[in-house]
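protien #1 (seq + structre)
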Amino acid sequence: MELDKKVMKNLFLFTTGKAVSIFGSSVYTFAISLYVLKLTGSALNYATTLMLSVIPMIIISPIAGVIADRIPKKWLVVGMDLANGVLFILIFAYASTVNLTLPVIYLSTILLNIFTTFFGIGIEAAKPSLITSDKLIKINSLSKLIDSTSSILGPIIGGIIFAFINIKYFILFNAISFIFSAITECFIDFHLNPIHNNETDYKRNSFTTDLKEGWLFFARNRSILELFFVFVSLNFLLGFSVNVPAPYIINQLMHLPSSSFGIINSMFPVGLIIGTLSVEKIMRKIEFRKLLISMNGLIAILAMLVGLPVFLKLNNGFSFIFYAAIFTLMGIAIAYVDVPLMTILQNEIPQKLLGRVLSIIMSLVKVILPVALITSGALIGKISITLLPILGATIPLFYSIYLLVLHHDKNTLLMNKTEQTE
């Protein structure tokens, strides 16, 4: 009973701390991007601000992974939220004395996302130590729910703040929120699960040796590599087959109203939330690896259908319903991939390597999406728009089928060996 209370306390404090950090970063990035657009009138400067929220994560993630495995994760998690709080206090002080300038905004955006990257790697690597093993699905579901909700509310709240609230006061509010989050995280028990707690056993090596150790575990572990390529294929097909072709078809070819396009886009995070709220029950009934591979294949099939309204020449009403349903189902399926995937990685990667391996996976996966977006954009107009989604989803679909067959064969072999032993 006492252990259950500690677990629930950790879950509550984890949810509060991560929600403040993720929402604060998401809302600020969007609001400050709009501020830059108003300040300069330049779409390039606006895009640069958004880009600076992604690039630091790709570059810093491997470094953050090594540090997350080197120092107590509590120091990293609390320290990064505190650093963000201090950063916003400094920005507020500067903005109160002198108007915000572009170089200061760029620098603050870079620092915010560096600190948030360290926080994210630290909290992800710490999860198995925060709760009992049977609650690992629960904490991953809560984590995904926070990410999904912030993707909906971040731009909305950011837009409201930009329209109605002086950006300086929001900066001050963000500073207080991050400091409050750091204080609450001080009360999290980062050593609740002794099975996943080996920080005291860490052997200190050089930075490059630590990074190499994480890379070698990642590169030589076939099971982890299979999951990594599922993650890569998912991000590629979303970028190549959905993120570029779908807006082009809906806006340029189908000529759906902008309000309809907005609703269709909102169905994706809605699906993510539905999937996140239901995935725990599904994972109690279906083997994790089978679930995520099947869902990856389903997403590929859904992506192939993106050009179908053009091919069938559907009217606007049917096209709207079709795309709303497709985007909702994709959101649900992605939650059914992400939560089992993270749970398997946390169970199969040794705790002493978890930060490094997770950071390598996240960094490499983040590179795939812009490559897919650029490639897909370059091919629009050169090949049929109805074939483009199919082209991007073919390899992920066949890879998912291959893994399902492989998984079935492994299970059959294991059952035969068990029967022979008995």
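ok now protien #2
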Amino acid sequence: MLEPREGIPPVVTDAGALTETVAAFAAGDGPVAVDAERASGYRYGQRAYLIQLRRAGAGTALIDPIACPDLTGLGDALADTEWVVHAATQDLPCLAEVGMRPTRLFDTELAGRIAGFPRVGLGPMTENVLGYSLAKEHSAVDWSTRPLPEPWLRYAALDVEVLVELRDALEQELDSQGKLEWALEEFAAIAAAPPPAPRVDPWRRTSGLHKVRRRRQLAAVRELWLLRDRMARERDVSPGRVLSDLAIVGAALAMPANAQALQALQGFGPRVHRRQLEQWLGALDRARAVPEAQLPPATAPHDGPPPPRAWADKDPVAAARLAGARAAVTALAETHGLPAENLITPDLVRRVSWEPPAEATAEAVAAALRGRGARRWQVELVAPVLAAAFAAAETAV
């Protein structure tokens, strides 16, 4: 597909055009295809820089959420409409920021996973299911660019061109496999999910952090990360464009005491301005000044079970339960032709294996799974095999 069927629509950038778009989509028929383009790797945060919609009777709309930052009216107009989104959990947060929240949705990526497709990107799914080839050469461009080039707008319009058609084909496929109710439960859970809670210690996601062993060095990673995050937010650029994770880890390991030593490290070379070098050195000095009792712990705080590699020493029976549970879930997933992580989340398997019910009957395991958020279809499939795996582990150890 090289061109949208009705051509590239003009980008909605003012209140008048937005009012017309809201009216057109409110009067449309059937589900609405929704997509959003972000500027990941270029800008700070995950805000939307273009929103695309398509609905029968309304055609395609391209909306600039920077020029039109409040799309609550559009969201309200589509409140009772099923949204068709590909990889919904990626797009829903940035859509919610501008006032758009679905009450019903169909996630074509998740549908592909449950149906057992090996490649679930929008391009491969469209080609495998519908026979259309979508060009994806603009997927990683800087969508904060203004004005947006015509080839990018064409690409964006094509992303929603056949999304409803893909939804209909996947619904039929899921129904033929007996999995449609499974998928609908998953979609309902996504639509009803609360906003994600802020991450605890987000600096611990720094790539290469495993190389940092000493708590003082971890404090340096934290101080450098926090400074980088503030700079990136103030400049509205991706944090990686301010300073790479590799540079943060390298500086934390070396703990240079002066500008010359810092400049010798990768990422802090001659192109780094003197004032910035002083700021990075200040972060390292703050890490040196942290009292011993206030240094970050070697491992991140968590409310779940310990890392599985430690189970054999801490609780051999629990380790046996987990091994049996993982094998049982993998086999069950293969039987039903879907990824094990979509059958039941690995975290949920770990938690129930670490703290199983007092009597690990299928009914008790089912109650434990429901209490931790598993969907009805997951409980019905997984509870019996977990109970059997737990019983076998208790006998074997």
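The chain has a mean pLDDT of 95.
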